[in-house]
Amino acid sequence: MHRPSLKINFLWAFAGNSFYALCGYLLLTILAKTSPVETVGLWGIGQAVTLPVATFFSLKLCTVNITDVRNAYQTGHYIAVRLLASLASVVISAVIGFVFYPGQTALVISFMGISQAVAEIRAYFLSNFQKYERLNLATGSQVAEGILALLLFLLLFWPTRNLLLAIGGIILARLSVLCFYDMPVSARVLSAHHPEGFVGYRPCWQWPQIWSLFKYAAPLAVVAAVMNISQNIPRLVMDKTLGREAVGYFTALSMLLVVYTMIHSALGNAALPRLSRYFTESIRLFVRLFVQLIVLMLAVGLVFVAGVYFFGKPLLTFLLKAEYARYNDVLMMLAAASTVLAVFSVSNWGLNATRQFVVQMPIYIGTAVVSGVCSVLLIPRFGIMGGAYAFMGSYLFGALTCIVFVGKAIRNNRIQ
User: Fold this and answer.
1) How distant is the alpha carbon of residue 172 from its chain centre?
2) How far is CA 247 from CA 53, 238, 243, in A?
3) Helices 244-255 & 37-58, crossing angle to 10 degrees?
4) With the CA atoms of 123, 126, 131 and 133 taken in that order, what torsion angle do they form, in degrees rounded to the nearest 10?
5) Which residues of 346-377 are buried (b: 16+ CB within 10 A; e: fewer)?
6) What is the model's pTM?
7) What angle do CA 61, 66, 71 make, to 5 degrees?
8) Maximum Cα–Cα distance for the chain, whole Å?
9) Cβ-proximal residues to 195 (8 Å cutoff; 6+ apart), any chain
10) 44 CB neighbour count, 10 Å cutoff
11) pLDDT in tens, 220-239
C-alpha cells in the first residue's frame, strides 16, 4: 500500500497537534480568566501528580507498537497490557491523592487520574494510525476530542465554577471519541494491513506474552515516567516553597509554549516510523534525516525565542491577564528551554528508532536528578525563574547524552 510522504504526514500531524494544543490552551485560558490563580495552581498540581503516574503506566506501548515492524505481539496482547496498566494508573493516582493531599485536591487528582488513563487507552489506537503512516486519521481523532472536551469543559465549568465537574466532562469527551471513532477506524486500518484479517480487540490473556511485552516496554515506561517527573518537579517544589499561586503562574506560562511543542510533536509523529525504517534499510538516510530534524528544531526555536522577546508581554496580557505579563522574563527562559527540549526530543526519537530502550533509563534518571537539584537550589533563590532554569539544565543534560548514544548506534550499524 502506498505510504504518504514524510511532508504530507508532518502536515497532517502538525494540523492535528496544532488544533489539539489550541483547544487545550483555550481550556486553560477559560480557567485563568474566570478563576483565581490558586485554581489554576490546583489544576497544575493535579497534572504534576497524575501525569508521571499515567506516563509510567502508559508503558510507552505506542512506541513499542510503532517500532514493532515485524508484529511480534498481537493486538490482543497490547489490549490486555493496556487495560491492566490503566487500571493500576487510576488506583495509584487516587492513593497518592488521598494520602498526601487534602480532600478537594485529592478528588481533583483522582478525576485527573481517570482522565489520563482514558487518554492512554486512546493513545494505543492512535499509534496504529501512526504505525501505518495514516496521520490524517490521527488528526481526525485529535480534532474530535479537542472540540468535544473544550465544549464540555466550558459548558460545565463556566456556570458552576466546579473543577471536578469540568474534569468529568473531559473524561466523557475522551470516552466518546474512543468508542465512536478510535476503535472502529483503527479496526479498518489493521484489517487493511493484516493479510489474515483483523481478529478484534478482545484481550489475549496469554500471560507469557503479556509478561514478555511488559518486560520489553518496562524500560521505556520508567524513562517516560522519570522524564515526566523531571518536568513536574519544579511545580511540586514551588508548591512547597512558594505556594499554590506561584504554581498557577508557572503552569499558565508553561502552557503558552505548546505552540512550539506541537511542532516537534508533529515531527515526531511523522518521523519516528521513517527513522525506524531507515535505520534498518539505509544508515545514510537515517543520519541525514536525524541531522535535518535537529537543525530544523534549532532554527524554529530561535524564531520562537525572538517572538517571545518582542511580543511576550502584550500576548500575556491579552491571552491571560495583565498580572501574568510581569513574568515575561520567565517566559523567555522557558522558550529557550523549549528549544533545547525539541533537540532532546529529536535525539530521543533516534534512540527509539534504533530500539535502544534500556539505555534510556540512566539518561532520564540523570535528567530528573538535574531537575531536582536545580529546583531545590534555584527556586527558593530565584522564584519561578528558578523553575525555568531547572528545565534548561535538565534538557541540556538529556539532549547531549542521547545524541552520544545515537552516535554510538550509528557507528555500530556501519560496522555490522
Assistant:
1) 20
2) 19, 6, 7
3) 70
4) -140
5) bbbbbbbbbbbbebbbebbbbbbebbbebbbe
6) 0.73
7) 95
8) 65
9) none
10) 26
11) 788 778 877 888 899 889 99
In whole angstroms, what is the distance from residue 9 CA to residue 382 CA? 42
One-letter amino acid at 131 equals K
CB 317 within 8 A of CB 280: no
Which set of grid coordinates corresponds to residue 314? 502584550
- Asked whether the beta carbons of 23 and 214 are under 8 A apart, the reply is no
**What DSSP string runs through 148-213?**
HHHHHHHHHHHHH--HHHHHHHHHHHHHHHIIIIIHHHHHHHHHHH-TT----S-----HHHHHHH
Assigned C-alpha cell, 309: 522577546
CA distance 27 to 44: 13
Nearest C-alpha neighbor of 227 from the set 356, 16, 402:
402
Residue type, 313: K
Cell numbers for 32: 485563568
Q: pLDDT, tens digit, for every residue of 74-104?
A: 888 999 999 999 999 999 999 999 999 988 9
